[in-house]
TrEMBL record:
UniProt lineage: Bacteria, Bacillati, Bacillota, Clostridia, Lachnospirales
CDD domains tied to this protein: ASKHA_ATPase_ROK (cd23763)
Entry protein name: Transcriptional regulator HTH-type FeoC domain-containing protein
Recorded family membership: Belongs to the ROK (NagC/XylR) family.
Pfam family, one: ROK
Coiled-coil features, chain-numbered ranges: none
Source organism per UniProt: [Clostridium] citroniae WAL-19142
Signal peptide positions on this chain: none
Amino acid sequence: MAEESVSIKQINLDRIRAFMDQEGSVSKSQISRRLGLSFPTVTRLVDELCSAGELLEQGTGTSTGGRCACFYELDPRFHLYLLIQIEDGRVCWNVKDMREETVDHGEFCFKSFSLERLDSLIRDAIQRHRRLSAVSIGIAALVSHGIVEESTVFDCLKGMNLPEHLKDVTCLPVVFENDMNYLTMGCWTGKQASVNSLITLFLNKCGMGGGMIIDNRLWTGASGFCTEPCFLPFMDRYWEGLDRQPTVTDVTELYTRLIQVYACTVNPSMVVLYHNPLLEGRLDDIRSRCAACLPAKALPSIELSKDYQKDYERGLFAMARSVS
């Protein structure tokens, strides 16, 4: 019976947190009405959250008679999240609060990636920010279940289960994915009210990367290999062209063929192409060619985005928060 009571209490606490996260500043009466909980129950739980420092009192609101209600909101810094981007030659990191506001940030460059320096970064962040609740790490490499499978840059990480290694560094939950999965999650998080299936494509100096959302879920495949377009057989000749003329190659056909592949296999509602100078002035032509080779019902909405960094950070934050 005691276990059941604790379980019900935890459920109600989580409901109150979720409601306040969505609504912002609210009174006990509003919580009681919206969640169908008795006022004494809400009072007890809200007071408990205030005592723990999780809620902040925001003063009283206007009254139409009787006592003015006291309003409360979640303390945005009660939970903090460490977000790390590991790139070719550089590591960028920032600490965000529950409102996605940056609390701390920094970066360092490297010629050869050092796992010890990553460990030190995480330890230092935990030392400075006692309310860190989770760590989210993105890397420009093929990652499967926390293990780096393919990488042209991070040889020292190949075959390593990084979250398992970091258990010796921190007891915080750690999420470790390739950069495109975070990018895709961040893109979808900003669009999820209207999009339940999404493909992202990004061409940079490391090649072409992609990510996939299916039925409102990030989809990586059985081994994390999903949306690795660089392994498609027709890609070689495009890489050869990009090597010869990296600034003037016409990428219209490349993107058209990739969108055609995804339309036939996944049938997404949207494809987002992240900005690359080679895409300048090409979007309408890509749309026209896709319309010419695909049935109208299978034609996804095709968008160009310049929000790479914003979406990447949003995805890191979303995944860190999901495990805290």
